[in-house]
C-alpha cells in the first residue's frame, strides 16, 4: 500500500493507495460530525466527484474513493499535448459552481483526476463546518487554480512551491505571465480559452501543410473521405443537435441536484425518457420526485435511506413514473420488483387519479374504482397476512 501526505491551508490529509482505491481517514475528534446521516450527501453520485463509500468504526471515519481505470492523473495529463493540457485546465473552471454549496474541497494535483473527456473529478471533499476542509472561499479556489495551472506547465516549480508563494517568480512564458498576473477565476478561464483556441488553430494549420510529394496520394484518398463524410453526416448531425444538448441537460440536472434544488432537477429532465437515462441520472430524478411525495417523515426517510446509485433500475423508475403521474408504468415497475408495498401505493395513486378524472362518465368511474379497489384489497390482505406471520414467528 502506498501513502501520500498532502498539506494545504494548514490542514494535512493522508492518502492510502491500493490499486484503484484511494482512502482518507479522520479521527472522530478531528471532525464536527454529530450524526452519520450528515455524510449521506457526500455519497450521492455527481459528475464532479469520484464515488465514495464511507465507513465509521473504531472512532474513525474512513472514506474509500473508487478511481475508474479510464482516468488520468495530473502527471499523465502533464505529458499530453499542449492543447489537451489547456482543455483539461479550462474544464477545472466548472468546479467554481460548487462554491457556496454545502460541499468543500481543495485543488491539488493529488486530489484531482480527469476522465476520458478531460473533465475534472474531485477525490476528497468535505462539508462546510462538518468535515475538513471546513470552508471554501472564492479566494482559496482562485489561488489553488492559479497554482494548478502553472504547475501543469512548469518544470521548475511544484504545486506546493507555487501555492506557498513561489508563484510570483513563475513567469517563464507569456502564458504563465498572464496567469500569474490574473486577479480572478474568470480571467484565468478566459486566458486558458484563448490559449486553447490559438493552439487548436495552430494545430489545424500544421495538419493542412501537406508535402507536395504526398499530394497525389491525398487526392486519391479525397474521394473516399467525401463518401465517408456523406455517410457520417447523419450520426454527426445527431451528435451535434441531439447528443450534446442531452449531455448538457444531464450536467445541469446534476448541478441543480447538488444545490438541492429538486424542483429544478425535475424541470431539467422533464422531457427525457427515464428508461434511457444513465443510472446516476435515474437516481437523482427519483430522489427529487420523492422529495415531493406526501408521505409521513418516517416513511420518507426510510425510503430515502434505501435509495442509492446501486438501487434496482425498476425501483428508480417506479418513483420517477410515480412523480410524473404515470401510474400504469409505476405499477408495472412495482410488479416487476414483486414489491407488494409499492404495488399497493401505485394502486392507491391510480384510484386517486380515477376519482379526480372528470372526463370519465359516472358508470366508467365507478367500474374502474371497483376494479382498482378489488386489486388494492387483495394486496392489502396479503401484506397484513405477512405481518401477522412475522409476528407469530417472533
TrEMBL record:
Key words, A-Z: Membrane, Transmembrane, Transmembrane helix
Transmembrane segments: 221-241
Cited Pfam families: YukC (PF10140)
Family: Belongs to the EssB family.
Record-given protein name: Type VII secretion protein EssB
Organism expressing this protein natively: Listeria fleischmannii 1991
